[in-house]
Write a structure and sequence with these properties.
Blueprint (H helix, E strand, L loop, with lengths): L1 H9 L1 H6 L4 E9 L20 E8 L3 H6 L11 E3 L12 E4 L2 E6 L1 H4 L9 E8 L5 E2 L7 E4 L7 E3 L9 E10 L6 E7 L7 E7 L3 E9 L5 E10 L2 E7 L12 E9 L2 E10 L2
Parallel strand pairs: 10-17
Antiparallel strand pairs: 1-5, 1-10, 2-3, 2-6, 4-5, 6-7, 6-8, 8-9, 11-12, 12-15, 13-14, 13-16, 16-17
């Protein structure tokens, strides 16, 4: 019972997200473009092909967050996610080929700051054991400024554009389920091996997607993507990541969208 209560409290960030717009970021690093051999992630030759992101969020004030870049004791690093040197999956990025790794996150959920406005993100990259790092050309931190604007920018510690890292920003806007869904059933929930997602679309979705996020707001797997016609449909999740790895027991979230419109969110409890 205590475990379920604690997991329910963790859900608070996603619950807030469903009531208003939420900013989603896809951050991609191309280590082949990094110029400094002391901090270019060994050009991607790392143990297990694993690259982690170690990051911090500033959400106090847009000007202050911008001015805090590279300052000692910067407020950007007061909300930090990542366990340096541990291969624990927290901040693990997805390998996309051609020396590129990416991660998709909802910052306010990822950093457990429900209701906040994300302004600036500080980040560095590392191998699973922390032996190799990825930083700017002076081996300092990298920053994503203007997350709350339509065009975030990636800069190094010198406040100049840093091309090896790119960011894609999407605004997820909540909509009423009734306008899209005639029904949505998740079963069994909690689940051990397979979870069935049964739903009935009331109208065509041109850019339909169903994604699973973990308790940090980090994307785990995409279950559906593309156009979908009205009618009854079923999806199944086997509790694995996009790369086929077993997920840890805990609370996960299904997010159903049509383009940048959020149709529905539901909690899922994996208990093997």
């Amino acid at each position: 019972m205590k475990r379920i209560v604690l997991l329910s409290l963790m859900a608070f960030g996603i619950a807030c997200m469903t009531q208003a717009q939420a900013i989603q970021l896809k951050i991609t690093v191309d280590v082949a473009q990094m110029a400094n051999p002391d901090c270019w992630m060994n050009q991607g030759v790392v143990a297990g092909n694993k690259v982690y992101i170690h990051s911090g969020l500033c959400s106090s004030d847009p000007q202050f967050c911008s001015d805090s870049i590279c300052h000692q004791g910067s407020n950007i690093w007061q909300n930090v996610v990542g366990n340096w040197g541990l291969d624990d999956g927290v901040g693990l990025m997805t390998f996309e080929g051609n020396n590129k790794w990416s991660i998709t996150m909802i910052p306010t959920t990822y950093f457990n700051q429900p209701g906040a406005t994300p302004y600036t993100l500080g980040l560095v990259f590392r191998s699973s054991d922390g032996g190799f790092t990825g930083k700017d050309n002076t081996c300092s931190d990298i920053f994503i400024k203007g997350i709350n604007t339509a065009t975030p920018t990636v800069v190094g510690c010198d406040n100049q554009a840093f091309a090896p890292v790119t960011v894609e920003r999407t605004v997820l806007a909540g909509v009423k389920e009734a306008s899209y869904l005639g029904g949505l059933v998740m079963s069994p929930n909690p689940f051990r091996e397979r979870l069935n997602i049964d739903y009935n679309l009331q109208r065509k979705a041109n850019a339909f997607s169903v994604k699973v996020f973990n308790g940090l707001g980090q994307e785990v797997v995409t279950l559906a993507s593309g156009s979908q016609v009205p009618g009854s449909h079923r999806l199944t999740w086997d509790g694995r990541t996009a790369t086929g790895q077993n997920c840890k027991n805990g609370l996960y979230y299904m997010v159903m969208s049509d383009g940048n419109q959020m149709i529905a969110t539901e909690k899922m409890l994996l208990m093997r």
